[in-house]
Amino acid sequence: MENNNNNNNSLNQKKRPFPSSLDSNGIDDHDINELKDLEANDEGFKDEEFQKHKKAGAPIAPLGGGDAYYFDYSDPDPAFEDVIAIQFQSAGKVYWYHHPSQKEPGNELKQGDIIVAYSERGMELATVLNKCRRDFEKQNKINFIKNGFLRKATPADLEKAEKLDKNAKEAWKICEKLNKELGIKMKIVKVKYTLDDSKAIFYFFANGRVDFRELIKRLAYEVRRRIEMRQIGVRDTTKIIGGLGPCGMDLCCRRFLHSFIPVTIKMAKDQNLTLNPNKISGICGRLFCCLGYENDTYEKLRSDYPLEDTEIIDKESGRKGFVKKLNVISGNLTIVFYENKEESGKYEEKVVDRKLIEYIDKKWYYNSAGESTLLKEVLDVEPVLSKEKEALGSFSDSSENKEQQNRKRRNKKNRGQQHSNNKNRNNTVKSQNNNHK
Asked: Would residue 143 count as lying in a domain?
């Protein structure tokens, strides 16, 4: 049997109008508009770690980045053993730093080590990741950074970072107070100090642009440091705050998603989900991230199935139908066969196993005879021998007799107990009457 996606697409007939009872969408215009708004998620991709000055041979941070530079095209290709993969926050963007001295004895780095490195924000603490060769081969030369590694984090670095976190919380309160005084409508999500204590970075979320020029002047006076304001989208806001998803687990973006990918309504359709905005959107108000990273698996599974609206021919009767819905997880299809070609209101809807669908001569066929054969094989049980049958029968008879005897014995005992109780009750009443007289 030949399977080919191109052939599948070429076999798609013009859309057949579903009867009203077959409408698989069941959504109104309001829901459709809301779904379009969820899909237009450009505002959600204002990344916290967006690299503004990424250019071959340029410093990663013009202010406070030390001697760290992006690889230039003239630099030799780095070897896998000479680079490390790091992240500056939990489930954050993965950066590749050139650090060949890690091969020297005493300078080895392993997964989970805390280091001090330069980022585009300045000096920060970072965590070493377990690097993957496949991801390494996907990187362009400009994605590697040289001279960005400083040292392994010392206890003094960790203590200083903890102190700076406390100062950042105080700066957060000051910024919230100034926002109220100036009437600025924005939500402060995170405040971070660079490890060299030279700059304070304020991450905020707001609808549209915000004029914070006066705010920066007053913040710089209060905090006594350089101020950087960064507007982030709803996805990054949710990633920083965290929470629980509908599945009951921590949010994917908070646990392991290092970067966001675009998610479309088509992905939800291909995964056979209900197109209800409330059921396919996360707490950030955008479409589920899992729709994106699970889509490759669904596409691979669907490649072996006829697409929706593809014509299906019953191999036995020769009647024609079409595919209404696919369920690649359970491995079945929903097929609609019209009883009368002229009257589309009469139809037969069947859910069949994928094994009963065959692809022959560039057409899809439904083997209805194979369904009855399959059921016959399941019901065709080997007959029990006569001696075994007699033994089973005698065993069941003896078991039934014993159960009947036990039931009679229990009933007789209960009747005797009830009779004695009634007799004692009558004697008690007679004695009371005699005493009264």
From this structure: yes
